[in-house]
Amino acid sequence: MSRIALEMSGQLNRAASMSVAGNMAHPLKDSFGRSHSSLRVSLTDRCNLRCGYCMEEEATFLPAESLLKKKELLWVVSTLVELGVKRVRLTGGEPLLRRDLDEIVFDLKSISGIEELTLTTNGILLEKWAEKLKKSGLDRLTISLDTLDPAVFKRLTRRDELGRVLAGVEAGISAGFQGTAINSVLLRGINEREVGALIEFAHRRGMRPRFIESMPIGAGNYDRGSFISAGELLDLIRDTLGDVVPVPNQFKSATARLFQVKSGLVGIIASVSEPFCGSCDRLRLTADGKFKSCLFSMGETDLLPIIRPEKGSWDRERLVQAVTQAVWHKAAGHEMHAEHFIKPARTMHSIGG
Ligand code: SAM
Ligand code: SF4
After folding, report:
1. More confident call, 344 vs 144
2. What is the DSSP letter of 69?
3. How many CB atoms lie within 10 A of CB 103?
4. What is the sign, positive or negative, of the torsion defined by CA atoms of 268, 271, 275, 281?
5. Which atom of ligand 1 is the closest one to the Cα of 349?
6. Which helix (H) or strand (E) holds 259?
7. What is the value of pTM for the model shown?
């Protein structure tokens, strides 16, 4: 066990014996009765792609000193785990750009209570990282891949990197990762004809294809014209691959609806056309220490003054108070269809997708 992990386990034992303020029977329950056990941790807002639905070409990034350091991040995550978080997903920006990623994975895995540690990546740097991540204990990968056509890839991401992503997918397999998901966003007139090819690509490699509806959380104006709903997507899959049969998802809070096609299961995440806010169990920590109870919330709780106090040491009770309050005030739903909906100022890459 590393030094930091040992320090942390000491802290955790001390913390476990302390009483905690607030609604401590279910500290991460909101005012609508939803419990939260899933946390997305953004490790950086930087990225080596510029997907148009996610970020600006000329995006400005957080100064390096405002990113949470490994020790700070571990303290916040371990506290949230004590409060009920069980599943942690590392994301960004592009999490593989973080130089201490393998150490972060290793130390997170030594926090007892984390049942599953996963990571979402664009795959470009997976050739370099896959084995190290496997050895550090990462449980599963999700790789984002919207197209198998190099020209379309360049159009969508503004970078000519499909080759490295595909090599990254193979590196994930060689490193021994199982149950990898391939996430795709389909856009009308750009890549929707590739739906069958993407499903086949994933199934042939023993992976799980998943399609995410494009959400109004990217840079610039949301292009409603390019939006493809889950219903339309199912028709496209049917036209390309034949029968599509709905399959119940065993997890109540699962975001993906599952469908059986001849070659295997396909997941569809219909966050826009069929929101799953009623069973949402997710919380988010941005790379600069902001806590968000919903991807679409306008507000965020700044934990940085608690994580990096000017004077004194870490105050666990203050952190617990801040996160439990933020969870309690989580809105019922994202209201992205309401007249008054305003797109949050932070775009996906700086919140953590
Ligand atoms: N860079 C990594 C990647 O691309 O996998 C991790 C961060 S990225 C923000 C996580 C996921 O969010 C990706 O699968 C991406 O396709 C998805 N995403 C980004 N912007 C989106 C949007 N506006 N609508 C739907 N999904 C989006
Ligand atoms: Fe980068 Fe991922 Fe956003 Fe694409 S979706 S720009 S890879 S953070």
Report:
1. 144
2. P
3. 17
4. positive
5. 9
6. strand 257-261
7. 0.91
**3-state class (DSSP) for residue 211:** strand
Residue 238 is inside which H or E element, if any?
Answer: helix 230-241
Distance 17 CA to ligand 2 centre (A): 41
Q: 350 CA to middle of ligand 2, Å?
A: 10
Q: Which ligand is nearest to the CA of 210?
A: 1
Give, in order, the Cα–Cα distances in Å from 127 to each of 134, 164, 173, 209: 12, 8, 10, 21
Pocket test for ligand 1, best of 162, 212, 343 (most atoms within 8 A of CB): 212
- Tell me the pLDDT band of 342, cut-offs 50, 70 and 90: low
Q: Which domains are present in the chain? A: 3-14+40-351 (3.20.20.70)
Identify the CA nearest to 290 among candidates 83, 62, 57, 17: 62
For residue 49, the ligand 1 atom closest to its alpha carbon is 1
Please state, in angstroms and rounded to a whole number, the distance separating the CA atoms of residues 148 and 255.
Answer: 25
Contact between residue 287 and residue 271 where contact means Cβ atoms under 8 Å apart: no
At residue 154, does pLDDT exceed 80?
yes
